[in-house]
Write a structure and sequence with these properties.
GO terms for molecular function: calcium ion binding; peptidyl-prolyl cis-trans isomerase activity. This protein has 510 residues and is of the alpha+beta class. 14% of the residues lie in helices and 21% in strands.
């Protein structure tokens, strides 16, 4: 003939997704039927119950087979017809039943284990005690060894040479809950000797697994579900703590930084930032990665001051609220998630007397009549870590108040119920005579009430603000009626009360 005969390749079936084709230097395992042109079979790998394993392009195969395997894909089936010049020549070959001077036909599939084809560069290094295959690719899909038999996960670090190189490469980039089949060539698995009872020559390895949990470095933990601790919805109360002070595990400390009020976060924490290799001895097993589903209700810093936002300016501000002023205002109190815990009608208090929590006093300071403002009060100047019962305010709660100021009035000095502004009597004796209308040398409660209201109306005196006038006068009367005869003598009477010591007697009776 004018040219030498060529190898004829007919593709019987080829997978749609061919990620890699056989090339020179690859180690290939395949099944085949060897036939003559008349259909007589002279050899096949299935009767030997094993694949034919060889390098391609390295002289281990007859030239026609080398050429016929080039470009094949995993699981591909080919009909390869080889002329004698590229097979066994004019004399055939002993023992294989080839045809002298004739063409040989090979019908081959290219499987590895369970119908797959594997290639690689095996090394004679192996490893002891782990269970693999000498010189071949390893595939573990429950057929050789699996963790389910041990009823526990396989826990290890990735990147620290604690697993075979192929498994390290195969696990990189995996997500929690992801399922992967990882197929490894022998040089990245257990080498040519293999190990133990799985020592089939040149068997490649495949691992199928689910990533239960991982952490930076990548650790296989033992918890696949989220562990929720301290959630308000499950325990009836919030979990209150400081961040960055060692009160929390390191992963939660780090995961909470930068969060906003009302934000929900899912925080995944590796064991070395959680409860480590020992767990917590209760619900969290050793080496467990944790998932926290957290809703940030509120937070504060112990150095925070009230945060004031004016939502409505006063039309005219003649006087700003100052310490010791008596104020009348409306308010709404709520938590930072919007839940209202209290709302008032018109309320009066004197600032600087301990009648209000410190945060409310600071939030009211400087207001003008007609002004509306919102004030955020942290717990250390609110109701603290203990909270209060009525209204119900939980411990360590950050509070939001809306205030509307109606009136500002200068208060009396602390301890005073009454004060002259001008035109005061010269002394208590003169005042006693003016009050004793019936001149019986005794002052009754009606006489004292009539006189005091008249002086206030004339602008000569002021009563303590924040209390009904009758109550103030009654308290003054009872605080001086030492013998409880319902009258004041000249020895008992005074209109100057400089402290609250004598008032305690009146408080008991009111």
């Amino acid at each position: 003939p004018d040219s030498l005969p060529q190898v004829d390749i007919q593709v019987v079936w080829k997978p749609g997704d061919c990620k890699r084709e056989v090339k020179s230097g690859d180690f290939v395992r395949y099944h085949y039927y060897g036939m003559l042109p008349d259909g007589r079979m002279f050899d096949n790998s299935y009767e030997r119950n094993g694949t034919y394993d060889s390098y391609v392009g390295s002289g281990w195969l007859i030239p026609g087979m080398d050429e016929g395997l080039m470009g094949a894909c995993l699981n591909e089936h080919r009909l390869i017809t080889i002329p004698p010049t590229l097979a066994y020549g004019v004399d055939g070959t002993g023992g294989l039943g080839g045809s002298p001077g004739g063409w040989d036909r090979w019908v081959g599939g290219f499987p590895g284990w369970m119908g797959q084809v594997g290639w690689g560069v095996p090394r004679v290094d192996g490893t002891d005690g782990l269970g693999g295959s000498p010189g071949g690719w390893d595939r573990w899909v429950g057929g050789c060894s699996h963790s389910y038999q041990r009823n526990r996960t396989y826990d290890t670090y990735v990147g620290f040479k604690r697993v075979i190189p192929g498994m390290e490469l195969g696990l990189l980039g995996a997500c929690m809950g992801e399922r992967r089949v990882i197929t490894l060539p022998p040089h990245l698995a257990y080498g040519e000797p293999g190990i133990g009872k799985w020592g089939n020559p040149r068997l490649y390895s495949s691992f199928e697994g689910v990533i239960d949990s991982r952490h930076v470095g990548d650790h296989m933990g033992e918890i696949a579900a989220a562990i929720k601790r301290g959630l308000k919805n499950e325990e009836g109360s919030t979990y209150n703590t400081y961040v960055g002070t060692g009160w929390l595990i390191k992963g939660v400390d780090e995961g909470l930084l930068g969060a906003c009020m009302g934000e929900r976060r899912t925080i995944e924490i590796p064991p070395f930032l959680g409860y480590g290799g020992k767990g917590d001895g209760k619900n969290i097993p050793p080496s467990a990665s944790l998932v926290f589903d957290i809703e940030i209700l509120d937070f504060h810093n112990p150095n925070d001051e009230p945060e004031v936002v004016v939502t409505h300016e006063a039309p005219e501000c003649k006087r700003k609220l100052a310490s010791s002023d008596f104020v009348r205002y409306h308010y709404n109190g709520s938590f930072m998630d919007g839940a209202v815990f209290d709302s008032s009608g018109s309320r009066g208090n004197t600032l600087g007397r301990g009648e209000l929590v410190l945060g409310v006093e600071r939030g009211l300071m400087g207001m003008c009549v007609g002004e509306v403002r919102k004030v955020v009060i942290p717990p250390h100047i609110g109701y603290g870590e203990q909270g209060r019962e009525d209204p119900m305010i939980p411990g360590s709660a950050v509070l939001l108040f809306t205030f509307r100021l109606h009136r500002v009035e200068e208060s009396l000095p602390e301890g005073y119920l009454f004060m002259w502004t001008n035109g005061a009597p010269a002394d208590a004796g003169e005042a006693f005579k003016l009050i004793d209308e019936d001149q019986d040398h005794r002052v009754s409660l009606p006489e004292l009430t009539s006189y005091m209201l008249d002086q206030v109306e004339r602008g000569r005196a002021r009563l303590r603000p924040g209390m009904p006038a009758d109550d103030v006068i009654r308290k003054m009367f009872r605080s001086q009626d030492y013998n409880d005869d319902r009258h004041l003598s000249i020895d008992e009477f005074t209109l100057k009360m400089s402290d609250d010591v004598r008032m305690s007697h009146a408080d008991d009776e009111l």
